[in-house]
Specification:
alpha+beta, Glucose Oxidase, domain 1, six-stranded mixed sheet, 8 helices, elongated, disordered C terminus
Length: 316
């Protein structure tokens, strides 16, 4: 296996200050220093005093309160509905085949579209023609809006486009895409525009239409990502999401990387730096086994559930 020449992290950091989520779901991080934990560590050993530890320091850690949808994360179908159009239960995050996330990716650049615009199939076809690319089943599609240009400001949650129902189904139902991503807070238009649309026509199915397209054809979505324009350019990429899954749950917390060459069997431990040089929520990759007894470190370890995978279009 040829190793990648470079790996670029496109996940977004979490801290107590940066606005990446609405107020009702903002994360809270308590930083506990080595000095503050000296007593806790020495108490494990009879007769040990904090001063006996090197420089009087114990371990440092962070106490994190968050939802599974804070910052960069992967949405499972369970997030947007309890069952599909045929009444089958939606998959939770622990049931998703990991091989779907080790796939070639392609970036669609919609930065020129106005905030609140609802992307349609024709827009995707035009962008694919511009970059001279033909979608393949199980490609990972990353959407570049202009939202990430406002990351860290109060405008971040109100900027960007929305992927419409038909555009989403164009990817998932018609071309076999199962994993999508976007640099905005959500796959749909910002709630500011959804609220305006609701006030105008009172259609509840329009406010979250890109997500609810998954009722017809379930799919997964890592989001939000960092600066896709600055890090990915026009290149295709293999994606390596990893994180800790909440079982069962509606999402997991990944670190998502663009790889210049294929990579597998890799693990990484991220961190939250108490000195805040790199406030990234990092957790060791969850090494989990499928219900069929396989391992994520072997190819095709999981049974691909037909109701989520669906019939994939034949490759031309």
């Amino acid at each position: 296996m040829k190793m990648p020449s470079k790996i670029i992290d496109i996940s977004m950091p979490l801290d107590n200050e940066t606005v990446v989520d609405p107020e009702i779901m903002r994360p809270k991080i308590q930083y506990v220093s080595q000095a503050e934990n000296a007593n806790a560590m020495s108490d494990f050993f009879d007769g040990m005093r904090p001063v006996d530890l090197p420089d009087g320091e114990g371990w440092a850690w962070e106490i994190v309160t968050l939802t599974t949808h804070n910052g960069t994360h992967i949405d499972a179908p369970w997030h947007y509905h309890s069952h599909d159009k045929d009444g089958n239960p939606m998959q939770t995050i622990d049931e998703l085949p990991l091989e779907w996330f080790f796939r070639p990716g392609v970036k669609l650049d919609f930065r020129d579209m106005p905030d609140g615009y609802i992307v349609q199939p024709g827009d995707i076809e035009a962008e694919l023609k511009r970059i001279n690319y033909e979608l393949q089943p199980l490609d990972i599609v990353l959407v570049n809006s202009k939202a990430s240009e406002y990351y860290g400001t109060d405008e971040y949650l109100t900027r960007g486009i929305g992927m419409g129902k038909e555009a989403t189904l164009f990817l998932t139902r018609d071309h076999g895409v199962r994993v999508t991503g976007i640099d905005a807070w959500g796959w749909d238009a910002p709630f500011k525009f959804a609220q305006e649309r609701w006030a105008k026509d009172q259609d509840p199915m329009a406010i979250w239409q890109g997500h609810w397209a998954g009722i017809e054809q379930p799919y997964e979505g890592p989001r939000p990502h960092g600066d896709l324009a600055g890090t990915l350019g026009r290149h295709r990429a293999a994606l390596l999401p990893h994180g800790e899954a909440v079982q069962p749950g509606a999402a997991s917390r990944p670190r998502v990387h663009r790889e210049l060459l294929p990579l597998q069997d890799q693990r990484r431990v991220g961190r939250l730096d108490p000195r805040r040089r790199d406030d990234r929520l990092g957790r060791q990759v969850s090494i989990r086994h499928s219900r069929e007894g396989g391992s994520p470190l072997t190819p095709m370890f999981a049974r691909v559930d037909a109701r989520v995978n669906g019939p994939l279009p034949a490759q031309g």
